[in-house]
Amino acid sequence: MEPVIKIEKLKKSFDDIKAVDGISFEVGKGEMFGLVGPDGAGKTTTIRMLCGLLRPESGSASILELDIQKHIKKIQNQIGYLSQRFSLYGDLTVDENIEFFANIHSIKNINNRRDELLDFTRLKPFRNRLADNLSGGMKQKLALACSLIHTPKILFLDEPTTGVDPVSRRDFWKILSRLIKDGITIFMSTPYLDEAERCNRVALMNKGKIISLDTPQKIKSSLNMVVVEIVCTNIRGAYLLIRDKLNMEVQMFGDRINVIIENYEKDYPVIEKLLEENSIEISSKRIISASLENVFIHLVKEAN
């Protein structure tokens, strides 16, 4: 796959904090690439450097074979960027916001392109509504339309669905799928590992470093251990007992826990006995396939 983004040993620090710590990877043309990790992992800093909004401390990066430090203006004309806090103008209508961003990119005769984007994002019935009066999901769609007005080759999305309701998140992903079919490369960051499953490839990022990079399926299959899902009374108590008494890796997800073990026949009876001795009743148990979240938490604990 032809690479359109190349990153080599890229670094950026803020005082004593290594926000991005020597990362290297490539993104192929037409790929949906996910940069995944918690707040403070370095995702936003990476995207801001690639978009020319922050200067790297060291290392190199190129977009569409153009160096980000030498040709940033040329690059910015060929990329779209949707930040975490995209600056829509609340006192302008949907139409006027799109026109404003078209003017920034010196795009003339925008009527056809604007209508196309409004149809695409299903915002046409709201074109005369002030941006301040849109819902959170509709604001994100308008922000996306504004970032696409100049027909970019690469779209950078920084946590585009954070704070958006589930229905709007689903609609947003349908729109992204159509963009991929049209040949646009999408580079997105997200804290949601369920969203990362939709990407062609994923880079798991923590404390400025890439801790795993591959297809979601290959990352999940890299966990050569058994994941046991347990539903029981006193979930918090069970979590602490397994962690502290058995020194096993245990992850808590709402009303259930996942225990990462090497051998089910040998290890599960030990867990069962401990919980029974502490009056914790197991209502169900099952072996499940590892999720990206299981693997990410496992890798972070190993790194620490």
- CATH architecture assignment of the largest domain: 3-Layer(aba) Sandwich
Strand order of the largest sheet: 6-7-8-3-9-10
* Count of discrete alpha- or pi-helical segments spanning 4 or more residues: 11
Helical residues, percent: 25-40%
Predict the CATH topology of the largest domain. Answer: Rossmann fold
Report on the structure:
Helices cover 37% and strands 29% of the residues. It has a 6-stranded mixed beta sheet, with helices on both faces. Strands 2-1-4-5 form a 4-stranded antiparallel beta sheet. A 4-stranded antiparallel beta sheet has the order 12-13-11-14, sandwiched between helices. It folds into 2 domains: 3-215, Rossmann fold, CATH 3.40.50; 223-303, Alpha-Beta Plaits. The protein has helices spanning 43-50, 72-76, 94-104, 111-121, 136-148, 166-181, 193-196, 216-221, 235-245, 264-277, 292-303; strands spanning 3-14, 17-28, 32-36, 58-63, 66-67, 79-82, 154-158, 185-190, 201-206, 209-214, 226-232, 249-253, 256-261, 282-288. A hairpin with a 2-residue loop joins strand 1 and strand 2 (17-28).
